[in-house]
Amino acid sequence: MYAVVKRKREPGAEIEEIEKPAVGKGEVLVETKWTSICGTDVHIWDWNHWAQNRLRKLPIIFGHEMCGEVVEVGKGVRSVKVGDMVSAETHIVDKTCYQCRTGRMHICRNVKILGVDTDGVFAEFVKLPEMNARKLPKGLDPQVGSMLEPLGNATFTVLPNDCFHDIKGKNVVVAGCGPIGLMAIAVLRCVGARQVIATELGSEKVRFGLAKRMGAHHVLDAAMGTEDIVRAVKDLTSGNGADVCLEVSGAAPALKQIFQMLTPGGRVSILGLYNDTVALDVNNAITFKSATVFGITGRKMFETWDTMYKLMRDKSFRGKLSTIITHTLPIRDIEKGMELIRSREAAKVSLRSEW
Question: Shortest CA distance to 303 belongs to which of 160, 185, 109, 193?
Fold first, then answer.
């Protein structure tokens, strides 16, 4: 089969012809139809500081966002069959640690990430544990199906307790309008947020425009400065501040700002990752505000998937997800896709399996 392989500890990767993986007990083989590029993939391609410290073993096939057709099942597989269209849950867990045994598999102590710790999906075929092959909802566009993994991140950020009533009728701030932030806006509108206020740098023309198309009631320029942006949120919420703030930008100033925007007793979800240590006035930001703070990693296995599939019943919601795909390329042009994201010309780049 053909695959995108990272062999050297330097920028770039190569398309190579390699052995197709063999399926063992409890595993399935999926023929990849669509993949999409995540920021993590750009880090690996560019071989930046994060990739140098995170990737423990080369060579590796990277990529983790996918949709494909099951073409072979191993012994003991019952939940999927040949011909099923599936997406991939990317957390490969041991099922035996304390977290796994107490309903928290998404933070398994020995988790392996598809396309980071194990061979990933930028390939004609990918091998998955049975439980990681998630069947697509009936009628879902396979191209959209390749984005269910990041959609799970967005859904978990919006609904950490899997309860729509946590958001219905609330004023919500989304800090950062990358693909996950854009998906979060769509989720918020789908579950009945009263008002969605997004923040993004005005210079990010693609993201700024897409935030409005996803349904944000207001999109504020994050470059206006802390005092002005906090005042703007307060003005839009009758002086109360936001009931819920979602930090998905990974920008240290945004993390500090959302606690200033938050109404006392409000909730914060933090998905963004920060390059450096962030100093925060915990007394005033959290304790005296009686704020509830969720750290978000991945998706709940598999409550978040069930929640996503409920959202998928809404045709308008599915249509908004399609809008996030700004560019579609054959996977043989993956380097061009990387550049589109790096240059900020694209929101989401979708790759069809054409080698």
Answer: 160
Please state the pTM of the whole predicted model. 0.96
- Catalytic annotation on 43? yes
Q: Please report how the helices 303-311 and 148-158 are oriented relative to each other, as an axis angle in degrees rounded to 10.
A: 100
User: How far apart are the C-alpha atoms of 121 and 125, rounded to whole Å?
Assistant: 7
Query: pLDDT per residue over 188-197, tens digit each?
Result: 999 999 999 9
- Which is the catalytic residue, given 40, 237, 304, 307? 40
The DSSP symbol for 216 reads: -
Residues 263-312 pLDDT 10s: 999 999 999 999 888 999 999 999 999 999 999 999 999 999 999 999 99
Read off the tokens for 103: 């309903």
pLDDT digits (tens, 9 = 90+) for 22-57: 999 999 999 999 999 999 999 999 999 999 999 999
Alpha carbons within 13 angstroms on the beta-carbon side of residue 94 total 10
218: annotated active-site residue: no
Catalytic residue among 43, 64, 91, 106: 43
Q: Which CATH number fits domain 2-146+314-352: 3.90.180.10, 3.30.930.10, 3.90.420.10, 3.40.50.300?
A: 3.90.180.10
Length reported for the chain: 355
What does DSSP say about strands 27-36 and 348-352: parallel, antiparallel, or unpaired? antiparallel
